Amino acid sequence: MWRRALLLAAAGALGCDGRVQSPLAAHPLPSPLAYPIRDLTGGWGWILRTAEAGTTRVEQERWRLRPVGAAPTELVGRYVRTVDVASTDGRPFACNQRPRYRQRATFDVVVDPDPRGGYLVHETGYHTEPGPCDHGFRHVGDYRADVNGERLALHFDGGEQTLLRTDDDDQAALPDAPWPTDYAAAGAWRWLATSYDDEGNVRDEAEWWEITRRTETQLDATYRRRVTVRSPTGAPITCAGAPSWTFDDAYVLTGQREEEHWHLAEVAVDPADHPCLRATPRRHLDEATAEQLGDYLVVEWRGKRRQVLYRPDPLR
Question: Are 93 and 192 within one domain?
């Protein structure tokens, strides 16, 4: 009897073609590429500082990768890229009329095993923060990736960058865009500019704006304008009898929505009175169009005079 049982057991281990079948055949082992991809899950970071031609540039990326549900062979992710550019000589940039600007964008990615070894990272889309120094267009790209402990190397045409691990939490949410999804025109705005007049004197101008929204399509606004004229050598300015002089104006405006822009019209002014102003024609009330780009308000006055107003803290 025991011999018959042994023969039956041996027969059960044979396939129809007489070959021996492993007891693991019904549950094959996963590909060796399936689980090492989980080594990429969590947070990663990268930063680069450079300087050239009177500017400094700081680039940062904050990555997060996580599994797609229960799928062990694919990851999804998102990274936030921030570029801060600052003038080291104090000269403002033309795009926002300030000595610094910021560009930010988020990129969505998917990660798959590379049959040749390592991983493939594919950018699937992006979203940019609106602003006068960013045209909003980005190229999406592909990378080959290798992970070595706490380092993730990304290889692309013409270069390579190495991310450092910040955490290994594979359940944390992907980062949201760190800027508002909706911007309101109402509130406080500011403008600063420095230039030279025809006599070679330095002219510092500052404006403080307050905008309120009357209806969905109408605005009310006021701004106070201060101008200081100063001699670069410290010599007295003839009309002022001193090396500098200052005046203040105040204006009242109304605004009307026109498609994607606002039409602004100055309706009243409280002009300054100063001996240096009496020899120049009084400024007429003006009109402008204004386009809001995130935390900036680009104002185009008649005569192609351009102002870029900013929130008191636009680089938050």
Answer: no
